[in-house]
Each structure stands twice: as C-alpha cells, then as structure tokens.
Design brief:
By secondary structure, the chain is of the alpha+beta class. It has one domain: Nuclear Transport Factor 2, Chain: A. Helices cover 22% and strands 38% of the residues. It has a six-stranded mixed beta sheet. It is globular.
Length: 161
C-alpha cells in the first residue's frame, strides 16, 4: 500500500514557489515568467475579467493582446497569505490578492482604476506537468471579486425594503 502524506512540507514549499512565481509574472504581465507555472496541456482558467481560457497558449494570447491595447497589472501582491492543502499528487491553494489595473485598454470586466482591485484566488495543483513528469503545476486557476464588507452575507441579514 502506498502511503500518502497530507500537507507534506516539501510539497507545500514547492506549491508556494509556483504560486509566488505565478503572482510575480502578473506584475507587468510577463509571459516568459508565466508560462512554466502551468500544466501544458491541461491548464484551464476562470479569469477575473469574466472570461475562461482553456490553455496556456490562450493565456499567452490574452497577455500579448493586453500589451497591444495598453492594459497592464501593477503592484500585484498577496493580501492574505495562501492556505495550501496537499494530498498525494493533488493540492489546492486559496489566497487573497490585490492589483492595480493600469493603462488605457480593457478586457472583459476589467478596466483601469486608480484603486487596487482585491480578489479571491483558488488554484488547483497536480504533481504532473501535463507531460507526466512529477512537478507541481497549476491545472486550474480561478479569480473572483470579493463582496464589499458592508454587504450582507446572508439574505436574512439584508435590511428590509
């Protein structure tokens, strides 16, 4: 029987290294820093702009297009430290990021704004690079906005109309 270690410290360290490299590549949308963090083939993303991207190559095309339309991300950073859960060859990570959207272009729901956008991040990892090699890679990335803290979390907490 194969013994699986939950939250093995080496696995968590490797996953966090990929996470930080992916975060860093977003500052300036640097394709050369981004590409190696994802399973290829196999990667799928739900982007904060409201669109989905079904491969690393589609992500590259997005970033190239954003540069062409004077759209960029700056000051991308971690607001809440990532929480990682790994179990054998599968893991997920949750974190809160923020970034400033800069430039004159736009994509989907994203438009330049002087105020940073704060959003949730969920990443799904497999210890498989898409080619069968045992390297931790992001297989799925999901970014979504965070509700304002003054909005009720539950319908019954909403003010009566």
């Amino acid at each position: 029987m194969v013994e699986i270690t939950i939250n093995d410290s080496r696995d968590v360290e490797d996953i966090l290294a990929v996470h930080r490299a992916w975060l860093d590549s977003n500052n300036g949308l640097v394709v050369e820093k981004m590409y190696d963090n994802f399973a290829n083939p196999g990667y799928y993303q739900f982007n904060l702009n409201g669109h989905s991207y079904g491969s690393v190559d589609e992500k590259v095309k997005l970033w190239q297009g954003l540069h062409e339309t004077d759209f960029n991300l700056a000051d991308m950073k971690i607001v809440e430290e990532p929480v990682v859960h790994s179990d054998g060859y599968l893991a997920y990570l949750m974190a809160i990021w923020s970034a400033r959207v800069v430039g004159t272009g736009s994509t989907g729901l994203m438009v330049p704004d002087a105020e940073p956008v704060v959003f949730r991040v969920t990443e799904v990892y497999r210890k498989d690079d898409g080619q069968g090699n045992p390297n931790w890679k992001i297989w799925h990335f999901h970014a979504s906005p965070i509700a304002s803290p003054d909005l009720p979390r539950f319908p019954q907490d909403a003010p009566a109309s």
